Amino acid sequence: MSKIDTLKSLRIWAAETAPEARPEDIDFLLAERLELNPSGFQLRQDLQLTPDQVKQAQKDVKKLAKGISPQYILGYSWFLGYKILVQRGVLIPRFETEELVEWALADLTTGDKVLDLGTGSGCITVALAKEAAKKNITKLDLYASDVTDAALRTCEENFLIHKVDVTVRKANILIGLEKFDKIISNPPYIKESEKDIMDQNVLQNEPQEALFGGQNGIEFYQKFVKQVRDHLNTGGEFFLEFGFSEKDQLAELFAQELPDFTIEFKNDLSGKPRMVKGKWNK
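RESULT FIELD:
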């Protein structure tokens, strides 16, 4: 093996050592360790590396070769520009969910009581609070709930780091929680039948309870619609993410169970239906 002393030679070694890993995962991991942004990473292939940098990268890439997600190797991910701590047992934040936050943000008003349901790492709450502050939306009463201890520990750490004041609750969907003006959630929505076509990396690493929504993928929503009226204030709204093949099922479910709500579906940036908003007309 030729000597590893530049970023270019390290990339070549990494691709050979972790042939199963996605090239973008290798690049993300190396760029983060070297504190380079994506363009800087591409432009600085001749960068001379220190022995310590090479050693760290080799350790990281060997973990990547074993199928560990780059975010879990680093111990963090990025969400709407905020650094969010993640660990095994906590869902890695997704870019699609950033669009959900931006949609909810457009309806947020000063003094709103907001629940991030199934908070995981707490990324939604952190981004919502920080972006709201930029828009001078203040005095938000923030709550975050989850069913697993790993998620609750991680979100509390992220709230502390980002100096966001949040009441954290352990809850299964909405049971035992109070009333809110806004409920926002990226719930589990993958169908059990989709396991075979999923990225093995995701299956090996990420918590199953945060991914799968039963046989038809809509188990969460079926329970949610039965509970939501008891947990929304008059005129309250919910914002939910869902799997792009589930729109018709959900439209039928909401029409049947929530006839007193105005329901609006929204496509993501790639044109697929991925988000729904419900407003209680009471």
